[in-house]
Amino acid sequence: MSISIHFQAVAEDTPGAQWKALFERSWPGYRAWFLRSGAVGRPSFLESRRALREHMPELVPTWERLVELAGGGDVEARFLSLWCPPPYIAGCSQAVWIDPQGRDEPVLLRNYDFAPALLEGNWLASRWTGQRVVAMSDCLWGALDGINESGLAASLSFGGSTVAGTGFGIPLVLRYVLEVAQTTAQAVAILQRVPVHMSYSITLLDRHADWATVFVAPDRPVQVTRHKAVTNFQNAVEWPEHAQATRSPERLAALRQQVETPAPAQQAIDALLQPPLYQTAWMRGYGTLYTAVYRPQSGRAELLWPGHRWEQSIAQFDEGQHDIVYPNAPS
What we know:
Layout: E1 3-11, H1 17-34, H2 45-55, H3 60-69, H4 74-81, E2 93-97, E3 107-114, E4 122-126, E5 133-138, E6 142-148, E7 152-158, H5 170-180, H6 184-193, E8 200-206, E9 211-216, E10 223-225, E11 229-230, H7 240-245, H8 248-259, H9 265-272, E12 287-295, E13 300-305, E14 308-313, E15 320-326
Parallel strand pairs: 1-4
Antiparallel strand pairs: 1-15, 2-3, 2-11, 3-12, 4-5, 5-6, 6-7, 7-8, 8-9, 9-10, 12-13, 13-14
């Protein structure tokens, strides 16, 4: 049987009725996920608030407003802090494309591979802390990837280790980066100081063509690299079963071939919509759900699927909806 996902573009500068509607639609599933080990298995409200105030103080007013919109409950507040959440494992391929001739603007490319039922599908334009941010939403106010009006684009991918520790869920950290950083250097500084609860790779590109891929984890120092392409392991494969199931080494080789040779950006974009980068294992939880293309110099953002393109920009973000059908495919 085919699978479909409802994607919607939502523009709301400050949290209000539209965010509340998104919360009410998704909260039952998130609540079950957050409490799957019991309420006492997650940090308390005071611990969660303390962590936000210490590490991401600029987000605290927004968090407080979201908690209010969510009804002011204890569980809602703890969940929205994303402090020490349950494990979060996704697929993904991401890369920076740089024109060796310097004629075309640099591009951040990414495929998001995950379980269809677990994707919110909300493309949100907001001004929560002052600057416009356009991002794919996760955990109701986190970000999977996005761009801000300063010309900084960022995306995340699972880093390949099952180790979990004390820190924030990565979608909120990426949201924080997009809310407060203006350059890759500023984003790197944030990632070097904010603790994360699992292993992830964050790729950054700014309007000045400065870029980096940052490896973060709870059990090792932050590593700032110049890897143009990354999939679901960092320096070496640590979870062979996951790497094999998601074809992570094969995807990395294919992605490197696109961004490390003098080929046009469109060729790399087209490759993301073809195997091995485009994955069809939706029933197993790591099919490609969307391709994102970010151009920081012009402030443009696109979501792509085979045969379908949805374009937006920081300057002109239009609300709308698209229902994407994923064809029958072997799992």
